């Protein structure tokens, strides 16, 4: 969390890079080879069957975040991607942190809770 709150832009950029890596990694924790299908399984568990509108919202949000990550130079070094350089851009994209803990305490496919995986593997130094 220290890197997210750091006054140093380089630290916040590094935290954003790790956060986006966590987003991609979480999509692979469910059983199965297709990342799109396993991400859908996570979203299904995050939203109960009684909340189809919320489930649709989560799916739209996940799709938008994926498209953002694929089109901006967040964790990629391709020169054809638009760079994220302004502090305001970096800080805005940290909104992914609020999306990742899909259900916070609900375990993921291999016994991890989403927020534990994010904090233990990707966020803490």
What does this structure look like?
Helix 2 runs parallel beside helix 5 and helix 2 packs across helix 7. Strands 1-2 form a two-stranded parallel ribbon. The chain is 60% helix and 3% strand. The protein has 125 residues and is mainly α. Mean pLDDT is 77; it is low at 103-112.
The gist of it:
By secondary structure, the chain is mainly alpha-helical. The chain contains seven helices and two strands, in the order H-H-H-H-E-E-H-H-H.
Q: Give the averaged pLDDT, no decimals.
A: 77
Total beta-strand segments: 2
Rounded Rg: 15 Å
Number of helical regions: 7
Strand content: under 5%
Low-confidence stretches: 103-112
- How far apart are the first and last residues' alpha carbons, in Å? 9 Å
Q: Main sheet: which strands, in order across?
A: 1-2
Main beta-sheet annotation: 2 strands, parallel
């Amino acid at each position: 969390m220290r890197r997210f709150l750091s006054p140093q832009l380089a630290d916040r950029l590094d935290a954003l890079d790790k956060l986006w890596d966590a987003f991609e990694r979480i999509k692979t924790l469910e059983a199965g080879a297709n990342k799109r299908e396993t991400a859908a399984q996570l979203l299904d568990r995050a939203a109960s069957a009684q909340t189809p509108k919320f489930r649709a919202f989560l799916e739209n949000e996940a799709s938008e975040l994926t498209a953002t990550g694929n089109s901006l130079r967040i964790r990629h070094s391709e020169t054809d991607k638009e760079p994220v350089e302004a502090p305001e851009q970096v800080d805005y994209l940290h909104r992914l942190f609020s999306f990742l803990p899909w259900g916070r305490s609900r375990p993921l496919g291999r016994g991890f809770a989403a927020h534990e995986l994010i904090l233990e593997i990707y966020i803490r130094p």
